[in-house]
Amino acid sequence: MAREEVIALRKRGLLGREVRFDPVTDFYLLAWDAFRAASFPADEARKLALALGVDLEADLVRAHRLLAKRQDAVSFKLPAERRGQDRLDPERDDFPCLLDEVHTALLLVEEEGTRAAATFLARRGRDRDPAFKGLIQGLIQAIPATKDKKGEYLRPEAKLLEALRQVVFPGLAPAREEVVGPAQLEILEEDESEE
Prior knowledge:
Blueprint: H1 2-15, H2 23-35, E1 39-41, H3 42-52, H4 56-63, E2 67-70, E3 73-76, H5 79-82, H6 98-112, H7 114-124, H8 130-142, H9 156-168, H10 182-194
Antiparallel strand pairs: 1-3, 2-3
């Protein structure tokens, strides 16, 4: 019960109000917020999944293909890595979780541009859906917006979310750019190139 309350408080802090998503979407949002990294300890991921009522292995690794697991660590898969079995198909009528719709929109931004993503979201009514907008805002705040020396986002998700925000959700607040020192930036850039 204590974990559930902590989770509810953290979501309220990110979103500014109480919003209910499905457990897979909650996991993605809260894991980014808690760990601020694409890779993190598998045991910590298991504890968060347990608190949200999902199974790390069965649900997040196998069924939803949200995470890749290697030894004692897990890593988020990019939207393009989650494609397959019609999972991130813009022609789908329904999606197993809200995150799949977000990842479909991000995949469209990456492959076809922001217009295609805007059309997809408008057709589904998500461009006017307060809960969906709240999720986008939460993800913008949770996923680190660190940039490299050239001014490019280190995390592809942050770059795609910003492009989506500018075109479809211009009223949402942009990410707070994270400032890191030169030594930290080199470490982060090395970590990103290894993934």
